[in-house]
Amino acid sequence: TRKRRFADGLAVLGRAVEASPEDPYVLYSAGWCSEFVAEELRRPKRAHQAVEGDAARHYAAAKALFLRALALDPDEKLRGDVEDMLSAISNATGEPWDEGMVERAAPRPR
Asked: Model confidence over 30-83: pLDDT tens digits?
């Protein structure tokens, strides 16, 4: 996304999510980039590679990825980062989120 090749970046991250669907860090990275794309579509700053869909679609995709990451019971630092991003999306879209939206996975053995 830093080179503003949004479609390419989202495609690579989509493949990463397919390869590691139970990795909260991969889900967070894909969600972060989807949110970044949504922000750029909502308030464009510079030219970028075209992507399919509008800001609402990319915010929704980011939110879904972040909720999946939370459901995997990430470490405390990542949990805080994910919750911050969900709050940012909520502020941008006006759609609230809360812990009740998270479907928890079974606890992992530690």
From this structure: 999 999 889 888 887 777 767 788 889 999 999 999 999 999 999 999 999 999
Residue 54: HSE in the Cβ half-sphere, 13 Å Cα cutoff: 3
* Nearest C-alpha neighbor of 44 from the set 33, 56, 55, 32: 55
Q: In angstroms, rounded to a whole number, what is the distance separating the alpha carbons of residues 30 and 20?
A: 11
H/E segment holding residue 37 = helix 24-42
**Two tokens at 88?**
């940012």
| Cβ atoms < 10 Å from Cβ of 100 | 6
CB neighbour class for 72 (10 Å; exposed up to 12, middle 13-18, buried from 19):
buried
Closest among 51, 40, 39, 56 to 14, alpha carbons compared = 51
| Residue 104 binned pLDDT confidence (cut-offs 50, 70, 90) | low
